[in-house]
Amino acid sequence: MYVLPCLGEDLLKLGMSRDPLDRFQSLYPRWFDFFDMDAARLVETDSVREARAIETRLRQALRAHNAPAPLLVSAAAGGHTEWFRGALGILAQETDALEAAGLRLHRTARGWLRNALAARGSLLFHWSAHMLEAIDPDFAPPLASRPLTVLERRLRDALDAYHALGLEPDPWVPEAVLRWWSEARR
After folding, report:
1. How confident is the model over 48-104, as pLDDT tens digits?
2. What is the spatial distance between Cα 170 and Cα 164, in angstroms, rounded to a whole number?
3. Confidence at residue 114, expressed as pLDDT on a 0 to 100 scale
């Protein structure tokens, strides 16, 4: 189960996922800039059934705090009924109580997400090389002279996620991708 606050706004998403990193990425391409990774919390449960029961109980308790999903969040990702305003303090208490009851609580999602990205680092090499080949194998024209394409944004966002969580992608990507990323970040 996760509590995922938006950065700089009193709005959050409550949900459950077997793979929070994948879920966060599905909500917004630059999830690491859109959501507050230091205030986000993750609760590990023993089963999907247990997570679903906790989420349902909390959603019912927060009914008065229900809010519409942000317009920037992907409609295809779903979960538009699980957004709440003014509920972070309540959910912090609730997740603390879940921890006291024996569940594992990650008080900040940053460390868990950093570990999840690092664990996927070995997949990044081939994926990024293939993305770069599809984008522009010769790096021409210079990126600074035109807007980024959809594929370019996708590659830049993936590499920026590593950087945002304190992991440099250097060990996991080809040198050509690093050069491209340096140019794309300008």
Report:
1. 999 999 999 999 999 999 999 998 898 888 777 799 999 999 999 999 999 999 999
2. 14
3. 96
Q: Which residues contact 65 (CB under 8 A, 6 or more apart)?
A: 84, 85, 86, 87, 90
CB-based contacts of 12, cutoff 8 Å, min separation 6: 3, 4, 5, 6, 83, 84, 85, 87, 88, 91
Q: Which two tokens stand for residue 157?
A: 């966002």
DSSP 8-state code for residue 6: B
Q: Which pLDDT score is estimated for 137?
A: 64
Whether the bond into 141 is cis, omega within 30 of 0? yes
| Domain boundaries along the sequence of the chain | 2-113, 121-184
15 sits in which H/E element: strand 11-15
**Residues counted in the chain:** 186
CA dihedral 141, 146, 147, 153 (to 10 degrees): 20
Q: Evaluate if pTM is beyond 0.90.
A: no
Q: Which residues contact 40 (CB under 8 A, 6 or more apart)?
A: 2, 3, 4, 5, 108, 109, 110
Angle at 182 between CA 167 and CA 149, to 5 degrees: 105
